[in-house]
Amino acid sequence: MTSPRRSAVLAALTVLTAAGPLHAQAPLPKAGGDLVALYKDLHSHPELSLQETRSAAVMAAEARAAGFAVTEKVGGTGVVAVMVNGPGPVLLVRTDMDGLPVKEATGLPFASTAMGKAADGSDTPVMHACGHDIHMSVWVGTAREMAKRRAEWSGTLVMVAQPAEEIVRGAAAMLKDGLYTRFPKPQFALALHDDNRMPAGKVSVPAAAALSSSSSVDITVRGVSGHGAYPQTTKDPVVLAANIIQGLQTLTSRENDPFQPAVITVGSIHGGTRHNIIGDEVKMQLTVRSYDSAQQQRLTDGIARVARGEAIAAGIPDDLLPVVTIERGTAPTRNTPALAERVTRVFTKTFGPDRVVTLNPSMASEDFNAYGLADPSIETVIFWLGGVNQARWDEAQAKGTSLPSLHNSGWAPDPAPTIATGVEAMTAAAMDLLAKP
C-alpha cells in the first residue's frame, strides 16, 4: 500500500520524467567556486517550475560543501539545508530556483539556449528572466559566509531552495511536505529579489506591503461563426472580446479607489483561424492584482459581470454567454513591520544611508508569503536588490529611457556587484538575527 507521502513523491517524479531530461546531462559546476562563475552556469541552464532537478542538485552540493546537513526532494525538487550552531533562534533563508518560458535576447556570451517542456507538453525556450539565478548565487554565498563565521553567531540556520515560485506552488508544496515539522521551525524568514528599479549595489526594504495578491482569470468568449463577408449572419466573438477588454478597464479607472492599487491585464487573446472566417470562440487569459482580499474579490466579480453584460448587449443567447474561470493565485506579501525596520537599520549601518533606497510596493506577486501565513508568529521580510549595471542606469536616467524589466527577454543583471551586495546584505541580516547574546 502506498503512503500519502510516497504518492506525492511519485507524482512529482512522474511530472519530472514526463518533462524530459532537460539539463540532466549537463555536468554540475564544482562546489566552492567563484560566485559569478556559478551565476553564469545557472543562467545558462535554467529550468521551468517543478523541473528544477539540476538547479536543486547544484544548491544541495554547495550547501553540503559548506557544512550543512542537506535534504533533497522536499516538496518535489526543493532543498533544505540545516546548520545547528548552538542555542538561539531559528532563521530561514529562502531562494527560488525556477526559470521562465522566455527566449533570451540579452546577447550575453553565456545566454541561455535551453529548451524545456511547457505545461501543455510543447517545447519552449527557457530563461532566467526574473533573476532566480542571482538569488541562488546569493544563497550559496550567504551559506558559505555563515558557515565560515560560525563562531560569531548562535542558533539554527535553515537554508531553503524552493521550486515553482513562478507558478506560486513551491512554497506550499514544501510546507505540505513537512518543512515546519521535519525541520526546525523558524522564528524569522528572509528572502530577497533582484530589482530593475535600482542600480547594482543598492537595497530596499518594504516597510510592510511588498507584493500584491494575484488571481488568474480565463474567459471563453463564445459566438456564432460564419463567413467574413456576411457578418450579419454571425455573432462575432472577436468584436465581443474587444468590447469586453475595453469594459474591463472601467473596473480600475471608474470603480476602484485611486488610493488602492489595482491592475487588470489581458495577457493573452486567441481566436479565429483565417482571414475570411468569423470564428465561434475567443479565449483570453488575464491577471488581476491588488493588495486587499475584498478588493480582489470585487475585481474578479466585476470581470465576470462585464463579460456577461457585454455579451448580453451584443445579443449573445443565454446558452452562449462567456465562461469565466477564476483561479486564486496568492495573497499579498507583507513584511512584518518590526522586522522590516530592524533589517533596514542593519542595512543602513552596513551600507550607509545612500545605498538604502525607498521604493513603492510591487504589483508583482510571490509565494514567499506562505512561510509567514503558515504560522502568524513567524516574522518575515523580503527585500529588493538592485541589479542594473551602474553605467546603463546612469545613461537611462540621463536620456529618460526605460530599461528591461523583470520577465523581459533582455533582463541582464550586473552579476558581480549584484551578487556581492546580496551576500553582504543577507549575511548582515542573518548575523544580526542570530547574534550571540
UniProtKB/TrEMBL annotation:
GO biological process terms, semicolon-separated: diaminopimelate biosynthetic process
Every Peptidase M20 dimerisation domain range: 212-308
Cofactors named for this entry: Mn(2+)
Protein known as: Amidohydrolase
Organism this protein belongs to: Sandarakinorhabdus fusca
Top-level taxon: Bacteria
Keyword entries, A-Z: Hydrolase, Manganese, Metal-binding, Signal
Organism lineage string: Bacteria, Pseudomonadati, Pseudomonadota, Alphaproteobacteria, Sphingomonadales
Positions contributing to Mn(2+) binding: C130, H132, E166, H193, H407
Signal peptide: 1-24
